[in-house]
Amino acid sequence: MLKHLFYFSLLGSFLGQAQQQIKGVFSPASEFKATMLYQLSAGNATYVSYGSVNAEGEIQIDLDASVPAGLYKLVYALPQSEHNFEFIYNGTEAVEFNFDIETGVKFINSKENQLLQAYNQSISLAQKELVQLYALPTLDPLNYKRRTQKIDSLQNYFEAQSKGTIAAHFIAASKPYIPSTAETATDYISNVKANYFQTIDFQDPILQNSNFVTDKFLDYILRMHFSETPSFQEYRSNIDTVHNAFVNTDLSYQLTVLNALKETLNTKGYDALAVYLTKSYVLPLALQLDATELISSLKGFVRIAVGEKAPNFQIETPKETTSVSLYDLEDATTYLLVFWSSDCGHCLKELPEIHTYISNHPKKKITVLAIGNETSSVQWSKTIQPWSEFIHSIAEGKWEHDITKKYAIEATPTYFVLDASKVITDKPYSLKDLKTVLDQK
Questions:
Q1: For the packed helices 232-245 and 212-223, what is the interaxial angle rounded to 10 degrees?
Q2: How many other CB atoms are found less than 10 A from the CB of residue 99?
Q3: Residue 10: DSSP 8-state
Q4: Is 434 left (phi over 0), alpha (psi -120 to 50) or beta?
């Protein structure tokens, strides 16, 4: 089930008379509570307004004359990065849509959005029809020509229909590679990949204001491979190509796009690719531009990324005179770091379950190091007594403790799974995810 957006207090009424509206119907209505509208510009999203979703799933956001034409994003659930869609607002007509939780958005008013949506659907279908020919025993040149001509005709039609609109920028930039003669499957794939960015004007401010370039880069990195099981080196090569594709653009724009790409790769579970992108391009750009806060964030991301060796730290136990570090621990095949707190309700439910799991699976050789984020040791000392299977450490000072900062802990409980060499192999989000990971050990 989607995490609902919380209602927001009204920040202020719009000045002047409403000029146009953003209207929509969400289905199923019970899954949605509110939406937030953002204007997209230079890779940034600026809050504009919000709209509550009524019992019928309807929203309406009134826009006054000061709201400019351009690219906008409507967020309908949390996390925002995964539950949103972009659209064009041209300032002259209302934008109306239906949104289904399974099938996504369909525009029922707003010619530019309808045109762009129809283009994407038509071109995608025509390309699939061409690719299907490669599954046949022999390649029919005449049929091949007809299907390439269909793609070309569709492209020309939509470019003509969208002339002078914001949608035209996206339609022109999305033009696919169209073979002039029948090609083998290998040659076709090679040419699609070689021409992937040829129609994109990376200096176009309309494209720069949207997520179009980031989405195209992500598609290229993940899909443009000759093998069904590409190697890590192939993925890295695609990242290098992506960087080179727009290396002549403004450095700040490059940093914005590549950092957004890194965030998306990380969210989708491509941790190693996100680390490679960060080390090779994002962090060097941030250092070059002296983006202090981002530099700190990127270094923190790399420090605790999957595939990196976990940062070492001293195990702190009140009244203990010996000093032992994480790296000093031996004999386990798997190490589980649990950051928790004795005043955390979720922790007090989940840690006993973990303790039971470890006790019931001695052959797995899992060592649990439980780090208590505490303001004092009194309650912590009492709470840990039943959990004799754990190695306990306390981080007094809670969020300000060096260990907490080193591991970028923002909530408890937080889990890190390490291998025998103390390399981070997983960062499960929930107890259910953690048990799934440990079951495989």
A1: 150
A2: 20
A3: -
A4: alpha
- Peptide bond before 28: cis, by omega within 30 degrees of 0? yes
Closest CA to 59 of 19, 99, 92, 87: 99
- The SS3 call for residue 35 is strand
- Distance of alpha carbon 76 from alpha carbon 5, whole angstroms: 7
Q: Compare 332 and 12 and report the one with higher pLDDT.
A: 332
In this structure, are 114 and 103 located in the same domain? no
Whole-number Å distance between alpha carbons of 303 and 242: 24
In a shared domain, residues 290 and 324: no
Name the residue among 333, 342, 266, 330 with its Cα closest to residue 304. 266
Q: What does the pLDDT read at residue 6?
A: 41
Residues 286, 357, single domain; the answer is no
The predicted structure's pLDDT at residue 320: 66
Average pLDDT over residues 310-334: 88
Q: Rounded CA gap, 96 and 98, in Å?
A: 7
The reply to whether 103 and 115 lie within a common domain is no
Of the candidates 118, 117, 113, the one whose C-alpha atom is nearest the C-alpha of residue 94 is 113
Q: What pLDDT score was predicted for residue 439?
A: 94
What is the domain-level CATH number for residue 320? 3.40.30.10
Q: What is the CATH number of the domain that holds 67?
A: 2.60.40.180
Q: What average pLDDT does range 375-399 have in this prediction?
A: 93
Q: Using an 8 Å Cβ cutoff, are 425 and 418 in contact?
A: yes
Residue 3 has pLDDT above 80, yes or no: no
Give the count of beta carbons closer than 10 Å to the beta carbon of residue 87.
Answer: 20
Last residue of a domain, one of 201, 231, 247: 201
| 170 alpha carbon, distance to own chain's centre | 22
Domain that holds residue 34: 18-107
Clarify whether residues 364 and 401 are in a common domain.
Answer: yes
